[in-house]
Amino acid sequence: MEPVTGGSHSYFHMIATIALCLVVVSAIVGGCSGTRPRVVEVAPDRSPAVSSISSTAICITFDQPMLASSVENAFNISPSDGTEHFKFEWSGDKSVTVRFPKPLAANTTYTIMIGTSAKGTNNIEMSEPYILTFTTGAANAESRS
After folding, report:
1. Which of 32, 56, 34, 53 is nearest to 44 (CA)?
2. Phi/psi at 139 (nearest 5 deg)?
3. Over the stretch 103-119, which tens digit does the pLDDT of each residue have?
4. DSSP secondary structure string, 98-143?
5. Is residue 16 within a helix (H) or strand (E), and if so which, with residue range?
6. Mean per-residue pLDDT for 49-63?
7. Model pTM score
8. Can you tell me the distance from the alpha carbon of 95 to that of 92, in angstroms, rounded to the nearest whole number?
9. Is 54 exposed, middle or buried (0-12, 13-18, 19+ CB in 10 A)?
10. Cβ contacts of residue 128 below 8 Å, gap of 6+?
């Protein structure tokens, strides 16, 4: 293709420059690279000690800043058995503690899922759901009322 008339730059050079500017602006506005978010840590974690939890909270940490409302809407626990009214407490924009309204039932297997609609602040969704399955232990003296 011939250079653009009236200038010293070729058409392709001009398009490449515009594309580069768009990439730089997108990175600045998005606050993060174009990578999909993922969960990097859960506490209590998946270790064998998880089988003894009787907690009313779980902390989830992502690898990048997240849009809080998208994470909260994508969060699910099964069975719900009265735990569906969670309270989300964010520590910055990468870590959230999910508090359940009552202790999880003893000797019960739960599955927590964060669906793919959870988005980073770059507005990119998770590529796959995050699923954590764990079994609570027997009720202890602290959780009995």
Report:
1. 53
2. -60, 140
3. 888 888 999 999 999 99
4. EEPSSPPPTT-EEEEEE-TT-BBTTSPBPSS-EEEEEE-----GGG
5. helix 11-30
6. 73
7. 0.67
8. 6
9. middle
10. 116
